[in-house]
């Protein structure tokens, strides 16, 4: 049946195939709750987004949005740590370089696992952009 979308209904976007797809979606959803950032996102062209110019707008979002982004990042870091631990448990190799494992996750700044900063948004955008080049 060709039922139309109800005003304000969220349209589910297709799966990106990225292992951090859920994190990406959640970050976008939270950022879009901030009116200023949503307006900047809607008027930005693809080059502004890829260049990191849009990431600098993160400093202007509300405290509530930043707090929610910080929580999302902590959850994603915990998820990645579980993946690393599972990989380590399966390999049982004591010579694993934990920093090298973390560096393979280029969609967030692993050196700052507690707060979501403009660098995190920039890294997330660049990781997604690199995937679709």
List the helices and strands and how they pair.
Elements: H1 21-31, H2 35-43, H3 46-51, H4 63-91, H5 98-103, H6 118-131
Helix pairs in contact: 1-4
Integer average pLDDT:
81
- Percentage of residues assigned to helices: 55-70%
Distance between the termini: 36 Å
How many β-strand runs?
0
Number of helices: 6
> Helix/strand-derived class?
mainly alpha
Order of helices and strands: HHHHHH
Number of domain modules: 1
Q: What gross morphology would you assign?
A: globular
Instruction: Pick out the low-confidence regions.
Output: 1-11
Radius of gyration: 17 Å
Summarize the structure.
The chain has 133 residues and is mainly α. Helices cover 56% and strands 0% of the residues.
Describe it.
The protein is built from six helices and no strands. It has 133 residues and is mainly α. It has one domain. The longest helix has 29 residues.
Descriptors for this entry?
133 residues, mainly alpha, 6 helices, globular, disordered N terminus, membrane, NUCB2 protein, secreted, Nucleobindin, golgi apparatus
């Amino acid at each position: 049946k060709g039922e139309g979308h109800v005003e304000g209904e969220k349209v589910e976007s297709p799966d990106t195939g990225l292992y951090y797809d859920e994190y990406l979606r959640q970050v976008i959803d939270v950022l879009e709750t901030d009116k200023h950032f949503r307006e900047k996102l809607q008027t930005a062209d693809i080059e502004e987004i890829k260049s990191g110019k849009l990431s600098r707008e993160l400093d202007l979002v509300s405290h509530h949005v930043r707090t929610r982004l910080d929580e999302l990042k902590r959850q994603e870091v915990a998820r990645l740590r579980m993946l690393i631990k599972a990989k380590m448990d399966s390999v049982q190799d004591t010579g694993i370089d934990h920093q090298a494992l973390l560096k393979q996750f280029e969609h967030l700044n692993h050196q700052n696992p507690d707060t979501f900063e403009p660098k995190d948004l920039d890294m997330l955008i660049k990781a997604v952009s690199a995937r679709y080049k």
